[in-house]
């Protein structure tokens, strides 16, 4: 076998494995690889250098909006299991308290086995952190001002989870809410920089914009007021709060913003015209932000779930202003669990993934076809029809198509 034939054989085998793998996982292949071989959400000991390039989220502060139910709730619970300090925001304060109690009641699980801390370092215990002051050198050369080690394996303290009621469409409240977060964690774990060391205890590390609502309606029957209301909630509220956070992260020198988008942000879906538009808008905003801030140590993540077992369907917009769709999710629907979705989102955050997809079969393979082979996707769309995609999302014909 000559070299050219060998290369051709390897390419064919690669693509066969790639295609088969699409039907094996409930997420895109990059996220599947990251979940198995990427950075863990937490470890028994978590090391962070002065550039905050640690391999886990343990000990960091993550603000989750839309945290009172669904994906936001289960993302918060998953993060709490790994020692992540939390800010939980939504409109319903009593639901936030319920989620907070769940977060405080979960056992934290690090990876099995200890990671031996570096030698020859002076260790001082601070609030839920170890401060390590040393004069070591990186393997790649150059001094390391400090390393911090977060110990995982005990429940979060009550002061580690802040509930902060917030309506993301009340833009005038955003700055005050952000200041509350900074001031709160500034008191709990004072972050102090100096030329010699850094007390780990950043006031905010990650903002996760999860608030939003879906939609079910025939495209031409949507009132303009619905378009306005959905963009106010799904786009403008997200972007306004994110801009406040980005200014802070750029001044701090590091930060991470994430948005819960949707498979609808990757490919237009039938009977959710305005919803699809809002998610595509978020992708435009966030991709622009990422490309503009290369080299500024600002990470941007787009989290794109498909159908999930939440109350999302009942709360969805329709074509009429101030009307809710009202239909419930059935237990036998083909959907991803909110727990599984929350875990995958946490994995993506820990690894600072740029864009991830997660959904039950056959949504992920279809998404690959429509994105990477649009001509094939066009033919497939004509063949399958809009009702097929509606049933794929809702496990039934939830909208009466014209």
UniProtKB/TrEMBL annotation:
What are the entry keywords?
A: Membrane, Oxidoreductase, Transmembrane, Transmembrane helix
Fetch the Gene3D superfamilies from UniProt.
NAD(P)-binding Rossmann-like Domain
Which Pfam families did the record assign?
adh_short (PF00106)
Q: Where are the transmembrane segments?
A: 6-25
Coiled-coil segments, which residues? none
Q: Which GO terms describe its molecular function?
A: oxidoreductase activity
Extract the PANTHER family matched here.
Answer: DEHYDROGENASE/REDUCTASE SDR FAMILY MEMBER 7-RELATED, DEHYDROGENASE_REDUCTASE SDR FAMILY MEMBER 7
What family, per the record? Belongs to the short-chain dehydrogenases/reductases (SDR) family.
Stated name of the protein? Dehydrogenase
């Amino acid at each position: 076998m000559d070299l050219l034939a060998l290369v051709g054989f390897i390419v064919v085998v690669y693509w066969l494995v790639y295609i088969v793998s699409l039907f094996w996982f409930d997420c895109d292949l990059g996220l599947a690889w990251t979940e198995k071989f990427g950075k863990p959400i937490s470890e028994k000991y978590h090391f962070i250098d002065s550039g905050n390039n640690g391999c886990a989220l343990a000990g960091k502060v993550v603000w989750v909006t839309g945290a009172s139910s669904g994906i936001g709730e289960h993302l918060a619970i998953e993060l709490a299991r790994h020692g992540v300090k939390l800010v939980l925001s939504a409109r319903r304060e009593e639901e936030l308290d319920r989620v907070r109690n769940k977060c405080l009641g979960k056992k934290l699980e690090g990876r099995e086995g200890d990671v031996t801390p570096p030698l020859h370092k002076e260790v001082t215990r601070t609030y839920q952190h170890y401060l390590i002051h040393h004069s070591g050198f990186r393997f790649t050369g150059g001094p390391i001002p400090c390393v911090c080690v977060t110990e995982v394996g005990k429940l979060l303290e009550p002061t580690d989870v802040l509930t902060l009621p917030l309506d993301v469409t009340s833009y005038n409240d955003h700055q005050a809410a952000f200041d509350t977060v900074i001031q709160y964690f500034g008191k709990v774990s004072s972050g102090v920089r100096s030329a010699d060391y850094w007390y780990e205890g950043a006031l905010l590390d990650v903002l996760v914009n999860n608030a939003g609502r879906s939609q079910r309606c025939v495209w031409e029957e949507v009132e303009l007021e619905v378009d306005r209301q959905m963009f106010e909630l799904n786009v403008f509220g997200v972007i306004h709060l994110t801009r406040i956070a980005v200014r802070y992260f750029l001044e701090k020198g590091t930060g991470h913003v994430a948005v819960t988008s949707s498979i609808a942000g990757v490919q237009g879906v039938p009977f959710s015209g305005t919803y699809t538009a809002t998610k595509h808008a978020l992708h435009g905003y966030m991709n622009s932000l990422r490309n503009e801030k290369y080299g500024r140590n600002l990470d941007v993540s787009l989290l794109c779930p498909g159908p999930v077992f939440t109350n999302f369907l009942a709360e969805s917009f329709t074509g009429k202003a101030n009307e809710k769709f009202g239909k419930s999710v059935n237990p036998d629907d083909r959907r991803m669990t909110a727990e599984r979705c929350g875990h995958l989102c946490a994995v993506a955050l820990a690894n600072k993934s740029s864009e991830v997809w997660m959904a039950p079969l056959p949504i992920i393979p279809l998404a690959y076809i429509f994105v990477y082979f649009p001509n094939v996707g066009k033919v497939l769309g004509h063949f399958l029809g809009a009702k097929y995609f509606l049933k794929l999302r809702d496990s039934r014909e939830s909208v009466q198509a014209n």
